[in-house]
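Task 17 of the worksheet. Students: predict the tertiary structure of the chain below and write it out as structure tokens. Keep your answer in the requested format; marks are given for formatting as well as content.
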Amino acid sequence: MTMHIDIHVLQSVPPSNLNRDDTGSPKTATYGGVRRARVSSQAWKRATRRDFSQYLDVDRLGVRTKRAVELLTERILKLAPHMTAEAASTLAIHALEAAGLKVKAARKAKDGDQPLTEYLVFFSNLQLDRLAELAVASPSEKIDGKAAKGTLRRDHSVDVALFGRMVADDANLNVDAACQVAHAISTHAVATEFDYYTAVDDQNPTEETGAGMIGTIEFDSATLYRYATIDVPVLLHSLGDGEATAQAVEAFVRSFVTSMPTGKQNTFANRTAPDAVLVMVRTDRPVNLVGAFEEPVRGRPGYVAASCAALADYVVDVDTAFGTAPSDTWISRVGSRTDALASLGETVPFDELVRQVGESTRAVALGRP
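Model answer:
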């Protein structure tokens, strides 16, 4: 069984600074010999993951943290309220170490009093629950390592299954990511601009007319091409349930398409809806269509229509050249500027697109004809 769900998004974003580098500048990349606006895959994956809570129950989600001792201690105290906080914390440390994770004392005041794992670890909430139950049920502080590691190999949350987990100390605890997310880039060349601003002290005396502070904020605006793909068999392997796999796909498609990184949102109010969403089911391999924009779009008067036309042409060219074709294609699009995409598949409202992608996944994951 092979099934890849490719998600392509064209989205016009006004002046903004969605994802900045260490100097505060909007991230960029050189592609096709020109500078493009860029939003890192990590930024959009975090926005997507945080959006999951709107569509999935908390027990089907996870948490990525160094503060596992703190989370486990809270669960142990709920299961064994007679236990002191110190004893519960000690038991939590033993449980994590039995599971193969290294724990060290917090070094900074901001990290609190509880020890931390050496690195960020992605747990499902259900895995933490099971590990706490195992710790409390153990006859002594010596917790069976095989059982403890077993709790982290089962009951993967949707986000752990989608985005994967790497544990440097024990490769057996790793989870292969079922999805891949590309860095979003503009379909055209971009020049960074500067917003010069001043702030006035409200308590200035009348005769004082100077600014309380002066500064600049860098920004850009762009029509972005975004891409992600889901390997359905890998997701099914991690979740172990066909219906859960279909629901995870639905949640990912919805959250990836509608979410946005939060960088400087209060300053720019840049939340826009995508102009076009193209979802393809492929049974050979995933295909990132960014090559449509290797030659930067030179739109007049805007970039959306020209970007849609370039994408539509490139899809046909790629499938013709390699003898491939998606088994299903659905499109949600806004207005006549996106008409060039209409020939690629069925145009449906976004809710219907999500439903049909979910049903297509169920047919494969549940073995339906």
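Marker's comment: The chain has a mean pLDDT of 92. The chain has eleven helices and 14 strands.
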